[in-house]
Design a protein that fits this description.
single chain; alpha/beta; Arc Repressor Mutant, subunit A; D-Maltodextrin-Binding Protein, domain 2; five-stranded mixed beta sheet; 22% strand; DNA-binding
DNA sequence: GATACTTTAGAGCATGAGGC
DNA sequence: GCCTCATGCTCTAAAGTATC
């Protein structure tokens, strides 16, 4: 590595041309330098490689054994560098293969990923997506060492060093099964508190949430009889029992098995963000995915 | 010795760092 | 932002070297 610090990339370009031309003057013409400049380059290269590299011979300059051995690897290295500095082509979703790694909660899976998955497969058939569990307290680790490229998260508080974009603002609705005997008209807070309810407790086992805080401020309390860790489980229970729940609206939309009513208490809306690390910000495939998601989630708001 | 080619010396210019 | 200085690059001109 120490040797690399001494090498100007242009010196390697000169060496490559010298090894091909085996003539300082022709190398100079080819690289649009004066001949003495190439001679100076060769002098530096000789010092760096501790080898004469090219020696005057009967017909121009003859490469030394070391120089001849360098030729192949040097050509490959320069070709790789050239490829690396060429502007990246646009992502062609119909043809290009790519694997995206995404972290999502079960809410994000249902509200964001599931509705757009069919369109994603149709528009980008050669791509793959790995969805892993979203762990909010390990956001930086997930987008760092664990290689996650995109995270869906409901708050931007405490999130440092990641690019972000608001996807949508979410509201709550009161949900119960279709044909539920008490859900035929908007409920008062008191009527709401009389119903047996289910809540999602991501950390496990909790029976209180923001709804209970708001009810308590009005001197009310509700009957939470089931606490589950995932929204998908909650939906399944709602569809098959008389339990009701305050549910993010996007989880309940277009579901004929559920009845939806306005929330009996005012719950604050929340914003859904997508976060991504700087390393993928300009990546054509990643930019395409972000634009696709933003367009789709706006479309089914 | 003529020719072709390489190397060296010194000057000019551009750029970056540091100080004010 | 401006100035100074150091550094590095390329140039021209001239000298040195190898080949025929």
């Amino acid at each position: 590595m120490n040797n690399l610090r001494r090498i100007d990339l242009n010196l390697l370009v000169t060496l490559d041309a010298l090894l091909e031309e085996q003539n300082v003057t022709r190398t100079a013409e080819r690289l649009h330098f004066s001949q003495p400049s190439i001679s100076v380059h060769l002098g530096k290269l000789r010092e760096i490689f501790d080898d004469p590299l090219l020696l005057p011979g009967p017909r121009g300059m003859q490469p030394t054994v070391r120089a001849a051995a360098l030729r192949g690897p040097l050509r490959q290295a320069l070709a790789a560098l050239e490829l690396a500095v060429v502007p990246q082509p646009d992502f062609n979703p119909q043809q290009d293969a790519h694997t995206w790694r995404v972290a999502a909660s079960d809410y994000s899976e249902s509200a964001i990923l599931m509705p757009l998955m069919a369109a994603l497969r149709r528009l980008a058939p050669a791509t793959r997506m790995a969805v892993v569990e979203h762990t909010p307290h390990r956001l930086m680790q997930q987008t760092g060492q664990e290689g996650i490229e995109l995270v869906f998260h409901t708050s931007d508080e405490g999130v440092q060093g990641l690019r972000r974009q608001v996807l949508f603002t979410e509201r709550y609705v009161l949900a119960g099964r279709a044909g539920h005997p008490q859900l035929h008209q908007p409920l008062t807070p008191e009527q709401f508190c009389d119903l047996e309810q289910i809540i999602v407790s991501p950390n496990g086992g909790g029976f209180e949430g923001i709804t209970d805080e708001i009810l308590a401020a009005r001197g009310l309390s509700r009957k939470v009889v089931l606490s589950v860790p995932h929204f998908l489980f909650m939906k399944a229970v709602l569809e098959s029992s008389d339990l009701v729940a305050m549910l993010p609206a996007r989880l309940a939309r277009a579901n004929p098995l559920l009845t939806l009513l306005p929330p009996p208490v005012d719950l604050p809306e929340f914003e859904m963000y997508m976060f991504w690390p700087e390393r993928v910000h300009r990546d054509p495939a990643h930019r395409w995915l972000r634009a696709f998601i933003k367009e789709r989630v706006s479309g089914f708001a």
